[in-house]
Design goal:
alpha/beta
């Protein structure tokens, strides 16, 4: 807590791109800024849980590398990453590999519309269990919440107590890839669709100042099928909702990781570097905003706004 100001981190989803969160933690630590609470969705939940267990960015990165290099994790995601070739010679040499990749992607597409999910739960739970050693939320050093989605009601499911791995699995269980969690009439899965950056969950934990880390959503603007068009339309809708949510944060960091494929965990170091760079660039503005929030004038305006039913604590630059 910085002079009475409770700092919250809202770490967004993003697959492998979400590894940029590790670089954000590095830069904040260097600046002497530590979060008092963390909320995360999907990959943001995994890294957020590690940080909440031990708020040491170097330790978090060590555990992230275990996750990235986990054999089960690597084999699960490799099938979704297209191979790229540069020269004509490489293209000729990789012709058989390209045919294999093409058939594999077609097989994934067929399986997606003929069965409810592609992988069993252990393909996600196993790596999580080997990386996140805390058993429950009670074992964490700082307050943490993992955000998931109930497919029945459309409402968020906020995990902040109980078994930690169960929460991380629910928050990271991508629909059609992993089985959802069925509990109390809910069907719970990855919250990265409507709740990509969990700013509201961070506020609910009592954060006075929310730093949101928004990871670019995966975009494919090659429309080969009707399904591609549907998915693109859905992506646009989610982006617009996410823009509205992020406006409720005090500062939004957007690491430039859009060039990386969401399932390519071999770009871990590059994503971390992009997160670090984005945060370092934003530090002057971050410090200015924190000074503003701590000022007597701001506190008086906030008290008056609360009396009239308003809230001046949300939104960047205020």
């Amino acid at each position: 807590m910085i002079n009475g100001l409770k700092i919250g981190l809202a770490l967004g989803s993003g697959g492998s791109r979400g590894l940029a969160h590790a670089g954000v933690l590095d830069a904040l630590e260097e600046a002497g800024i530590r979060a008092d609470c963390v909320a995360g969705t999907s990959m943001g939940a995994i890294i957020g849980a590690l940080y909440a267990q031990n708020p040491d960015p170097a330790w978090v990165w060590e555990r992230v590398n275990l996750y990235v290099n986990d054999e089960t994790c690597a084999s699960t995601w490799a099938a979704y990453v297209p191979r790229e070739t540069d020269s004509e010679e490489e293209q000729r040499q990789s012709r058989l590999a390209s045919i294999f990749d093409f058939m594999q992607r077609k097989m994934i597409a067929v399986k997606t519309v003929t069965r409810p999910w592609l992988q069993d739960a252990e393909h996600l739970r196993g790596p999580l269990t080997r990386v996140v050693t805390a058993e429950s939320f009670a074992d964490l050093q700082i307050p943490f919440a993992a955000v998931a989605l109930d497919l029945i009601s459309g409402e968020p499911v906020i995990y902040d107590e109980g078994p930690l791995i169960d929460a991380l699995y629910a928050s990271s269980a991508i629909p059609a890839i992993f089985p959802p969690v069925e509990r109390d009439g809910m069907v719970i899965c990855d919250g990265g669709g409507p709740f990509r950056v969990p700013v509201e969950a961070c506020r609910a934990m009592g954060a006075d100042f929310v730093i949101a880390v928004d990871i670019a959503a995966f975009e494919d603007t090659k429309f080969a099928t009707g399904l591609d068009l549907i998915l693109r339309s859905n992506t646009i809708a989610r982006q617009r909702l996410n823009e509205f949510v992020c406006r409720q944060a005090d500062l939004v960091l957007s690491p430039d990781v859009s060039e990386f494929h969401w399932a390519n965990f071999q770009v871990a170091d590059a994503c971390r570097a992009r997160g670090y760079t984005a945060t370092r660039s934003a530090l002057p503005e971050l410090r200015r905003l924190i000074r503003t929030r701590r000022s007597l004038g701001y506190r008086l305006r906030r008290a008056m706004a609360r009396r009239c039913g308003c809230d001046v604590s949300a939104g960047p630059g205020s």
